[in-house]
Design brief:
ISF_SsuE-like, alpha/beta, Rossmann fold
Length: about 200
């Protein structure tokens, strides 16, 4: 069974971002999905150098921890990206990750050989959490994420944005938020399993 991959763009462990992702994945697992949490900050991901090597092949020439991640995303049933809001947008870890998918952009638009077929309609979900009570910051981050998901042929099916959580782990004291995220994870898993099953029925 393919996994739901959850990418956490926070440098903190067990902070607000991870707390929310853990709740989301708990819901997904209770709906029958396999999941994997991936901490971007723990990976060796080099900055995109705009070398344009991928413009000639559709593949990134860098050899770092992102190489196996490309394969995991190509095989996943669904994606979740969670980022804390820093200076009104994505964390640096999340942006570096997204920028390294320029090769997938070329695979799709230049070579017409995307790593994920658009017809599969694989689902994606996006979440943010931050201290400042300014909803436009979450929307700013979401606008970037939408470009990313479109480029890799994942379909954004939902997003949640939380503000007013400053201290690490403080979101754990917000039961209504945790309940909402749990339900979102459960619903997302059902959608992912349904979509994946329709495409790959009989293969496993």
């Amino acid at each position: 069974m393919a996994k739901i991959l959850a990418f956490v763009g926070s440098p903190r462990r067990e902070g607000n971002s991870e707390t929310l992702v853990a709740e989301f994945l708990k819901g997904s697992e209770n709906a029958g999905a396999k999941t994997e949490l991936i901490r971007l900050n723990a990976l060796d991901i080099r900055l995109c150098q705009a070398c344009d090597a991928c413009a000639g092949s559709g593949f990134c020439v860098m050899r770092d921890d992102l190489r196996p991640i490309y394969a995991e995303i190509a095989a996943a049933a669904g994606l979740l990206i969670m980022t804390p809001i820093y200076f009104g947008s994505l964390s640096a870890q999340t942006k570096v990750f997204i920028d390294r998918f320029q090769c997938w952009w070329h695979a799709k638009y230049t070579f017409k050989r995307p790593f994920v077929n658009k017809e599969e309609k694989r689902p994606a979900f996006f979440m943010t959490v931050g201290a400042w009570k300014n909803k436009s910051y979450g929307q700013n981050a979401a606008d970037i994420a939408k470009v990313y998901f479109t480029s890799i042929n994942y379909r954004l099916t939902g997003e949640l944005h939380y503000t007013g959580f400053d201290y690490p782990g403080s979101v754990a004291e917000a039961p209504a938020v945790l309940e909402e995220v749990y339900k979102a994870g459960k619903d997302f898993a059902r959608e992912a399993l349904k979509t994946y099953g329709a495409v790959h029925r009989g293969e496993e």
